[in-house]
């Protein structure tokens, strides 16, 4: 059983690199620049990731402007907004993953967020309405670039890649056709995004100062836990119980 | 019984069936009845669209009325009744719409219709049909299981009224909000509520949120999109630059676009009714229209602004030639440019060259528009400028418009024109300063640079020619390169004519001439003070010479500076005053003005000098005061170095402030408080030339403080620091002034005496005294008693010899005892004493016998001479200052001579006494020396007995 497992690991590593590389090739130029400029300092990369996650969890940089723009700043609507979208992996699920799987999960989730933001901006807003959207997208690209570099660093450090949470492979898609529904779903999406980045920051905070693995979860367990905990994210494709108006 | 029941039932059914069939047959065949009623729903517009036909019209067309009834929720609740009148044609499908104020999704609607023939042309056809059956209409709701509020995503214009409904069947206690405001609904049915928003305002492009919830739990919501009212385009106009394209522009007003693509920004369409062409404009404020060359050049444009809710149109009609807005002229060039003329050429890019253009030409220098011209041209333009200024940069601007109708001028096209140089057109303004020095005239020439207007080019150098008027052949030539504005000449005392010209690349300027006379620079004129104001100085003078060509006033604008910036002003011959003003004038600065008269031969004579301030200020500094002639009762203050000329105003006097312990001030001063709460006596010196002050009536040995400050008309200068003076003691002062000269005299005498000591010694006490040679004797003899002679020892019969033992008592007697070998020689004095009794005070003459004193001096005891307590006062005096023995001696001697009357003096021989040296003079006075066991030889002297008694008696 060990030989196939090792073979699988050997084949999985370049695959992971390829997958991450492809994932980060959007936009290709930025990813290429990122790859060329990857820092070899684990501490520096981790510090940047922590800082970015800390910055992006702040609701004042995206959610609050969105709420004000959409006129959702009333007790009832704000309360509904802060029932954040469940389409994001929970902190527990993220913490249970290996570091590479965690990075992959974060990257894939943020990719979905990028797509949702693009749709939200295209359908709901004019470019001049909310400049914070542009900043948020740049930050997400930055995190993903750093994740790529960190993954490269960990992969070279012989850490075994593991499967990401299955729920995050599918992009987060807008479900509502009704304008009001689209408004509040966008609100919940941004709320979930900030909360997700808070969870990501927490997980990064638990990482040691050395690239050597300091905790080890079995891929199966991580997968199991991730799948179980990421189940809400599957609901993204369906009407979201938490986010949808209860009738 | 049963049969009858069955029969009755069958009969009833048959009757019903017949009735039904009958009615159907009647309906089917009833003429002019509405048929095929079809109702469609437009939820967004909340419209019900009716569609029906009327079959079998007896005529081609018939005027008919269709009563319509609409019920809501149930047929019995008729909410609307109305008639639709129209002319019905054969086989025509009739349409009619009804708009519901309530969203159609809120409740089912029921509709029925009938027809009435009401055509006056055919009165026989008067007919009313039956009502059609009720037709139920329900608006489609794709997710009606979830949606509670209607209408969804409604788009209205600002100021509209909108009615909403919500269903609370599944959510008891449902509350609805508009934004954050709770709305009270009106119950329409058991679970159906409605509310109406009136005069709805625009809040945001993202729509107004209307939502319902139970206990702050959101259940459903809708967005009401409120559009701003579309405005009519403003300032709509079209114009062409090239006759190929019309450019139409307008002000679009507010953007009515909304978020979520609910309503895009308004669209604009351009329609030309002449050509029948239409164009959708991409931009919201301008649109281009291609001009067809084969069509008449007239247009009638309609601009339509349109959004989902409204259309707005504006129109304009014009001929193309009336809407020509040309492009700016091109290829603006100059030719034949001279110092005063130039020709400008240009082109106008016009598609049709046959159009006559009107062009405006402006000639600017750096400040203003110098020339303006209007030129009518076809195609290329050309214009000749004249009366230009040499060496001047001009900007030529040209713009054109259609000459037929000036719709708009083109933009300006500009080009720079620089004219050629010409010789300077004006003589230099020259002035001079003349200083005479050792038979020479140092002449400093100044001239003002020519203005650009007069220079006519760049001044390259200045030529200066100095001609000696006395020696015509003598010339001095100087060439000063620009931009120098002056030079210095050294001329002899003769008269000189100086000519100055400015030269540019074309030639020289007219000559400026000035004459330096022999007396120039030597004029003695008294300076007069004048008062200036902030606007300057009014300088006036009295004409002095009859034959004059004019006046010149000169002054320095910055008199404190090394280069004082000499300024001058030429004035007419009859002028006797002028106002000199300058931005450089500052308060507190003294300005000096010289007024010159110019003779007809250009010689300048200084006639008056003025000096003044635009505004006098208080002095900036106080005098530095020196103290002199300090006495116990006075001292003198002096500040001769204080420069009054450089002060910030004319010095009018000085204040001397004197502080003393005395509380009263001298009558010529006033008491004044000082900032430190002390007081001083203030003396006012009103003469500015007085720079000394005698402070008198002071107390000796007293402490005084003083300060001196100057003052001008603007006030007093800063109080100087107080200088401390202590008057000296009066007695010591006197002593210093009396005793010191006396001491000097005594010292001088002592020196003389010392110098003559040998002579005195030989005269008074030679080593071996020879009584016959004694000058004393001779002196006494000659003055007092010429009969006195030297007593011969042989002639004396000693009556007693007493050996004196000094230790035995204080009694001193003359004893004859020889000097033993063991005894050191003692200083001995020769006294002229009374022989019998010398205990009393008596004048005496004593001579120190240095012959017996050598060894004693060797032992260092010369200064201490033992003296009996009964020694006479003169002896004590001598003892007190042994160094002054000679002086004392002389004094004593002199005194004796003066006090002893001639003829009464008797001479006694007193033994030469060798006394031991004991103690100092004080102890000598208090404790008489102990007698030593020794024998002393006393030379006995003959003392006239009468010599002592008168002294004693005194």
UniProtKB/TrEMBL annotation, chain B:
The keyword Metal-binding does not apply. Pfam families: fn3 (PF00041), LIFR_D2 (PF17971), LIFR_D4 (PF25552). Gene3D superfamilies: Immunoglobulins. Residues 1-23 form the signal peptide. GO terms for biological process: positive regulation of cell population proliferation. Residues 328-422, 426-523, 619-730 form the Fibronectin type-III domain. Its main location: membrane. It is a single-pass type I membrane protein. The keyword Nuclease does not apply. One of its GO terms (molecular function) is oncostatin-M receptor activity. One of its GO terms (cellular component) is oncostatin-M receptor complex. The chain crosses the membrane at residues 733-755. It is found in: Membrane. Keywords: Disulfide bond, Glycoprotein, Membrane, Receptor, Repeat, Signal, Transmembrane, Transmembrane helix. PANTHER family: INTERLEUKIN-27 RECEPTOR SUBUNIT ALPHA. Belongs to the type I cytokine receptor family. Type 2 subfamily. This is Oncostatin M receptor. It comes from Chinchilla lanigera (Long-tailed chinchilla).
